[in-house]
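As a warm-up, study this chain.
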Amino acid sequence: MKTVSQAILLLGLIIAPCLAIAAEPTFKEGWFTTNDGVKLHYLEAGSGKPLVMIPGWSQSAMEFKYQLTDLSDKYHVYALDMRGHGESAKPSHGYRIQRLSADVHDFLLANNLDGVTLAGHSMGCSLIWGYWEQYGSDHLSKLILIDEMPMVTSNPGWSRQELEDAGAIFDGKSLFDNVNALAGPDGVKTTEGFVRSMFTKQYPVDAVNWVIQENLKFPREYAARLLFDHATNDWRDLIPTINIPTLVVGGKASLVPWKSQVWIGKQIKGAKTEIFEENEGGSHFMFMENPEKFNRLVNEFNG
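Now compare it with the structure written out below.
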């Protein structure tokens, strides 16, 4: 007959692995202050060549948890909480692409980073384009552009080809409708619907709900302000000026039209373009739905 202590030990051996599986991964946290005095938060893991990851609109650094975990054996991986987002300070000003791009530059300076592979998801690509316009390749060696169209809002005067290349998902009316809904009493409900449209139907509901909660850490009034600025920047003239190695990643089932990602890849000399199929988790968040393939692509490109 087992003693009580033996039983407790046996129970511990059974439970401990389950707890390890269920627990959220933990990373080292850091803070830095931008040149306009805003304290921003970031996560980091690993050592070696720096890989800096910028989330999209209303997203948090923690949404790169699979990259922080799985790529940190080869790289020093950083993930930023942009101003207002995640655990960063939430000032009443600065919710424009160019200011957020400057925050990225401030981060690289604060951490004395050079030879950086800079990866942006969704609006994070716009921050990269804003960075490129202001600072060029300063501190950078490579770029990873993850599922962002070069222009979010369409011009009624565009040809069919221009619309396909730009990948716009709003027109003038729908942009204002969404911005006003976000800033109004239905802001949370609008966010929930928007985020759910960014995943395939196969992705677990609980995982999508977690992403929604991370996104809601950004106050809806500021989220609406930033979405408007983001959606009215046209980057089609700037993208062809990029002259460092670039990986473009899209998804067949993403709300971002995949042909716009092919267009971006064709504008950047020597760029590699990879489009995830729907059955590969090819949504807007393919790096969460299929981190194994996404991380393999990053290793192959960045190695």
